[in-house]
Design a protein that fits this description.
InterPro entries: Metalloenz_LuxS/M16, Pept_M16_N, Peptidase_M16, Peptidase_M16_C. This protein is of the alpha+beta class. It contains 16 helices and 11 strands. It has 2 domains: 205 residues, Metalloenzyme, LuxS/M16 peptidase-like (Cytochrome Bc1 Complex, Chain A, domain 1, 2-Layer Sandwich); 184 residues, Cytochrome Bc1 Complex, Chain A, domain 1 (2-Layer Sandwich). The strands form 2 sheets. Strands 1-2-6-3-5-4 form a 6-stranded mixed sheet, with helices on both faces. A 5-stranded mixed sheet has the order 7-11-8-10-9, sandwiched between helices. Helix 2 packs across helix 5 and helix 12 packs across helix 16. The N terminus is likely disordered.
Length: 440
């Protein structure tokens, strides 16, 4: 009886997610090329104003890395009408919060306000585009901020440089071989004119999408958007032509050292397609199957049962142009790194030669249904999704139907994709070791 009740509850949840997750939106373009998306939800008196720029670390001069992340900080310095250091004070004193983040592919800024301050949010984001002050004082100040962030998050963080070392070895031609935070010596060497030129090229309305989501009146907000953003001049068209990587056809090996760790790690990295590719969705499911929690295949076998590792897992680091799929393990006791690789490979071979069970397949479907519900459970999350699906996927309606892609993936397709990408001759094996293991 309890089992029947549980099944009915799950079915009810799935039915709820199918119907309740429909996100209504309106979109249009300004004459200057800025794309605008409005989502009205009057259930709570909150509004999110956000702008995503199609600029990230991959757009940088390889001798001037870190610019996109640097501007994530610099564009809070102030504008012609917002005094230096006053941005956060204005936001907090009006009941709001704000933040920004940068990847290799895009930069995202947003404010969350009580809905009666939607115009304030629009004005502030338009100021960032129309009247920024990019001077030497701001550059010097934010340079120190970025250096401190790098020290905390990368240099002094255990395993903080593992992704940097994987990317460096996985990509020879494409700018994904760099890091989002960049090299500090590049920022030190950059001139004020170089920063200003980077801003003028990428922070233009025709390289951005504006999303206003929450407790709004769409007709009123539409007029505000046109008033605040319409006068901003269009920038020059941005043409991207990144070099393609040659396929990996032979095993690669590398070693990296970290002074912040005592336990070594082994990482097997595979180059995978863009997150827009259907195979990327299948790989996301494989990642969940292998390492989604303590009942997952890798954890249960290698950590729980065989007690060979402190931690194992799969990371599906998916990006706009390529993805990097990473399997990793931290050994327990005297376990050798190569023995961890053997155990991990056994699970991959099972994926390649056997269909996963119906029960595991249903569990995966439930996991992704739940993720779908959670991603659109807040106005802030919806704003982010609307911007991302437009800017990086070219299909805003994925906010409503992306879950259908996961629902359509079959067990046979999971097997097929594992065979297509997760082979020993298509990977990098990176030994990530304590620095005291480095030979002098």
């Amino acid at each position: 009886m309890k089992k029947c009740l549980f099944i009915l509850a799950v079915m009810g949840l799935v039915g709820f997610s199918s119907n309740a997750q429909q996100v209504e939106f309106e979109q249009f373009d300004l004459d200057n090329g800025m794309h605008v998306i409005l989502h009205q939800d009057n259930t709570a008196p909150v509004v999110t104003v956000s702008v995503m720029y199609h600029v990230g670390a991959k757009d940088e001069n390889p001798e001037r890395t870190g610019f996109a992340h640097f501007f994530e900080h610099l564009l809070f310095e102030g504008t012609k009408n917002i005094g230096r250091g006053e941005w956060f004070t204005i936001v907090s004193s009006n009941g709001g919060t704000n933040n920004a983040n940068t990847t290799d592919d895009r930069t995202y800024y947003y404010e969350v306000f009580p809905s009666n301050n939607v115009e304030l949010g629009l004005w502030m984001e338009s100021e960032r585009l129309m009247h920024p002050i990019i001077n030497q004082i701001g550059v010097d100040t934010q340079n120190e901020v970025v250096k401190e962030e790098k020290r905390l998050r990368v240099d002094n963080s255990p395993y903080g440089k593992f992704l940097e070392n994987i990317k460096l070895n996985m990509f020879e031609k494409h700018p994904y071989k760099g890091t989002t935070i960049g090299k500090m010596e590049h920022l030190d060497a950059a001139t004020l004119e170089e920063f200003q030129a980077f801003y003028e090229k990428y922070y233009v309305p025709n390289n951005a999408v504006l999303v206003v989501a929450g407790d709004i009146n769409k007709s009123e907000v539409k007029k505000m958007v046109k008033d605040y953003f319409g006068p901003i001049p269009r920038g020059a068209d941005i043409v991207r032509s990144f070099p393609k990587e040659d396929p990996i056809t032979e095993p690669m090996t590398a070693t990296a050292y970290d002074s912040n760790i005592q336990i070594p790690a082994i990482m097997a990295a595979y180059r995978t397609p863009s997150f827009k590719d259907r195979d990327a969705y299948v790989l996301a499911m494989i990642s969940s199957y292998l390492s989604g929690g303590k009942s997952s295949k890798l954890y249960k076998k290698i950590v729980d049962e065989k007690k060979m590792a402190l931690q194992v897992g799969a990371l599906d680091f998916s990006q706009e142009d390529y993805g990097t799929y990473i399997l990793y393990g931290l050994p327990l006791g005297d376990t050798k790194l190569e023995d961890l690789v053997t155990e991990i490979d056994e699970e991959i071979v099972k994926l390649q030669t056997e269909l996963i069970s119906e029960r595991d397949y249903e569990k995966l479907q439930n996991v992704f249904e739940n993720q779908f519900v959670n991603s659109n459970s807040s106005v802030t999350g919806i704003a982010n999704s609307l911007a991302r699906y437009y800017m990086l996927y070219g299909d805003v309606n994925l906010i409503n139907n992306e879950i259908d892609i996961y629902r359509s993936i079959t067990r046979a397709e999971i097997q097929e994709v594992a065979n297509k990408y997760l082979n020993p001759n298509q990977r990098l094996l990176l030994e990530y070791l304590p620095e005291d293991k480095q030979e002098n």
